[in-house]
Design a protein that fits this description.
The chain contains three helices and four strands. A four-stranded parallel beta sheet has the order 3-2-1-4, with helices on both faces. The chain has a single domain, classed as NAD(P)-binding Rossmann-like Domain (Rossmann fold, 3-Layer(aba) Sandwich), CATH 3.40.50. It is α/β, with parallel strands linked by helices. The radius of gyration is 12 Å and the shape is globular.
Length: 84
Amino acid sequence: MTESRTAHTALIFGATGGVGSSLARRLAASGWQVSLSARGRERLVALGEELTAHTEAADATDAEAVENVFSASCNKLGRASRAL
């Protein structure tokens, strides 16, 4: 049985922190598509390359930036089944 690409897609805010990066690595290793967001672009890009993940630098306390991350992630990967 083939699952749709949206069945296992996660958008992770704070992805470069300890919990966020651990979660991203675990989900990616389990076959999830991950879209990563964090304020620090350098570490975010490095993690995105490591996991072959979509990245969007943004401050999660800025509502407009969060909306832009959701839009960009959905355009790239389809609807996220989880936002963390």
